[in-house]
Structures are given as structure tokens and as C-alpha cells.
Amino acid sequence: MRFVDFKTADLSDVHREGVQVADDVFRSFGLKTRFCGEVVTVKVFEDNVLVKRELEQPGSGKVLVVDGGGSRRVALMGDQLAALALENGWEGVVIYGCIRDSADINAMKVGVRALGTHPFKSVKRGEGSRQQRLDFAGVAFRPGAFLYADEDGILLTDKPLHEYGSEEAKFF
Which pLDDT tens digit goes with each residue over 108-138? Predict the structure, then answer.
């Protein structure tokens, strides 16, 4: 599914009752300041093996949401995983945790939201789970839901709010 340009402010005006708004806890990284897509979830703690496995898959039309437990002691994504996300067409990545190599990521055409940065890399045990409901930042991130992120915030909804139809966006 391809999406037209959007603004979360406009979407929330039209669909106020049907969206969740994440708490403003994330910093924006990468040149892609707006992204949206179907949610894919991973839950890990200071271990990014499952993050890498997901980003190795085709990601067109999808946003990877990572619950890193809010840890600020290691990074769950660096420039290599950001490049992998770009190479495999992921629309964006939201991390409830940290990234590293932020200067390099900020030069890439990727969209990343994270709590902050940390220079330490994560452990590599392969522990965690995927495709389950994640609760952080005041909202529930469910696999198959739709996420919209821009300069004003992050919205979540159960169904896509707009998609290509003809020349105009169709609102559901």
C-alpha cells in the first residue's frame, strides 16, 4: 500500500476519535521526517538481534516498532541497521530505546524515532519476541495497525486513514 503525503495535524482533525497519539518522548533522526505504514513489532531488551532480523525482510509499506524497554544504556540501532532499513524499503522505525551513529543516520534518507543516543552497542543473544502488542509512550502499538509520524507527532489507528486513489487522498 502506498501512501500520499500527509500531516498528522490534518489527520487528527478529521479522525480525532479514531486515533491514538503517542507521548512526545521521541527524537527524530534521519532525513525522512515523515513516514507511515503498517506496524510490525519487536520486543527486546538491550539486544538487537531481532531488530536486525526484521530489517533484513522487505519493509515496503511497513514501520518497525521496537519496544526496547526504554533502556538508555545501549543502542538498538546504528548506521548499519539504518542502511539495512533503507535497502529493504522500510517506511520508518520507532524505537523505545536508543540509537547510535546519529550523525551518519541523520545523513540517510531514513525515518527513525528514538528516545535518544548512546555509544554502546547492544548484546547479541537473540532474545525477545515479535508481532505482539507493545505498550509505551501512552499508546498500544498493535501488529497490523497503522502508524503516521511527522514533525508534530506519532498517530496510531486500526485502519489506514488515507491511500492513493486517484489524484486525491481518500479518507476512511
Answer: 999 999 999 999 999 999 999 999 999 999 9
Total residues found in the chain within this entry: 172
Name the amino acid, one letter, at 36: C
**Cα separation, 87 vs 98, whole angstroms:** 21
φ and ψ at 155, to 5 degrees? -110, 150
Q: Which of 131, 129, 113 is nearest to 22 (CA)?
A: 113
Neighbours of 124 (CB within 10 A): 10
pLDDT tens column, 37-69? 999 999 999 999 999 999 999 999 999 999 999
pTM for this structure?
Answer: 0.92
In this structure, are residues 91 and 12 in contact, taking their beta carbons and an 8 Å threshold?
A: no
Q: The domain 8-159 is classified under which CATH number: 3.30.200.20, 1.10.3210.10, 3.40.720.10, 3.50.30.40?
A: 3.50.30.40
Nearest to 44, CA basis, from 146, 140, 122: 122
**Nearest-angstrom CA–CA distance, 108 and 86:** 8
